[in-house]
Amino acid sequence: MTPLERFAAYAAGSPVDRLPCVPIVGNTAARVIGVKVGAFRGNGKLIADAQVAAYRRFGYDVIRVFTDLYTQAEAMGAKVAYPGDETAYLEAPALNDPMEIDRLVPADPFKDGNLPHHLEAMQRAVDAVGSEVPVNGAVTCPFTNASFLVGADRLARLMLRDPAAVHRLCEVSLATNLAYAAAIMAVGATPSLTDAMSSNSVISPRQFREFSLPYLKRLIDFIHGKGKGVTLHICGKTAGIWQDMVDVGADCLSIDNDASLADAKAAVGDRVRLMGNVHPSEVMLQGTPEKVREATLACLAAAGDTPKGFIVASGCSLPTETPFANIDAMLDTVRDFRPSVPLIQAT
Fold first, then answer.
1. How far is the C-alpha of 275 from the C-alpha of 10, rounded, in Å?
2. Which parts of the sequence belong to the Uroporphyrinogen decarboxylase (URO-D) domain (predicted)?
3. Rounded Cα–Cα distance for residues 254 and 236 (Å)
4. Per-residue pLDDT of the chain (347 residues; tens, 9 = 90+)
5. Coil, strand, or helix at residue 320?
């Protein structure tokens, strides 16, 4: 089966050759074509070449165009550093003073920063292999993007001292998200949502519901309105907000390795598809193929029979230097897996 055929059959409760599997390949794709990560900056063709080559090399089930979390914040004025062969990092937020929030304007995804190059990469990937595999474009969600606009420490203080300012930041971030999501769908790809700073490891469930959830819901409602499903990844510990993540409309929850797949299945597996959660560093980067096999089997044991479906995946994006043999080991383990119960309930 092609990935698109596999997903369609799986969603319908029809037989599939294997479970979907998505080792979340980001900048590891650079290694597949022998280039440095820094070469991706401003080069949509190279990003597409790398991601398509990685998909063809490993045979996983989703291409996700992603280089770093900061593309939208950079397009709104944040300063991002690009080491020659490492993942980009935030060098300075867009604002030095919260009093300047009202001068922020939403990014134009066709003109600002590296967003046009990422859109080009998605378009090229769709043209090359979109008839057989889903192509996703990573979207950094409103609250997390807001933290890059003013800095995480300052945002934490604003939540306590000036909640209205946080909401203004999230509004302008949401406007960028909506424009970027629309552009992603216009080129034939699907937005994939990532929201690192909404983690229970960073903010409380109460703060999530006040500052993040309303904007996530509006973003997800917009994507659903265009006929697309939504995968939502929130890093770290998320058990305290799993119900909220489902209520907000996510169709698939990507569970970080810091959380329990078994607990997630028990809590929300009858309501939403789950995805995860082999450790990207301890297992995929530093482990052996046998350790990857053991960890993948543990994920399958924990969640392979999730009523609404399960995608075997890494808990987050893979480190750049992840050995190819370990990615192969995850895919091979899933190919060899033979469940003793039906994989999914038809909906």
1. 14
2. 2-336
3. 11
4. 999 999 999 999 999 999 999 999 999 999 999 999 999 999 999 999 999 999 999 999 999 999 999 999 999 999 999 999 999 999 999 998 989 999 999 999 999 999 999 999 999 999 999 999 999 999 999 999 999 999 999 999 999 999 999 999 999 999 999 999 999 999 999 999 999 999 999 999 999 999 999 999 999 999 999 999 999 999 999 999 999 999 999 999 999 999 999 999 999 999 999 999 999 999 999 999 999 999 999 999 999 999 999 999 999 999 999 999 999 999 999 999 976 544 554 44
5. coil
Spatial CB neighbours of 296, under 8 Å, sequence gap ≥ 6: 278, 312, 329, 330, 333, 334
**Tokens found for residue 221:** 């409602």
Nearest Cα residue to 306 out of 271, 258, 255, 257: 271
* Measured distance CA(337)–CA(233) in Å, rounded: 25
**Segments of the chain assigned E as strands:** 21-22, 63-65, 79-81, 89-92, 135-140, 190-194, 231-234, 252-255, 273-278, 310-314
Structure-token pair, residue 202 = 């960073």
Tokens linked to 51: 């991601």
Using DSSP bridges, classify how beta strands 89-92 and 79-81 pair: parallel, antiparallel or unpaired.
antiparallel
| 113 within 8 A of 122, measured Cβ to Cβ | no
Of 182, 153, 166, 14, nearest in space to 92 by CA? 153
Rounded Cα distance between 162 and 177, Å, is 23
Q: Is the pTM of this model over 0.85?
A: yes
Which residue type occupies 172? V
C-alpha 43/C-alpha 30 separation (Å) is: 12
Q: In this structure, are residues 16 and 9 in contact, taking their beta carbons and an 8 Å threshold?
A: yes
Q: Could you give the CA distance from residue 267 to residue 123 in angstroms, rounded to a whole number?
A: 37
In 187-212, which residue ranges form alpha helices assigned H by DSSP?
Answer: 205-207
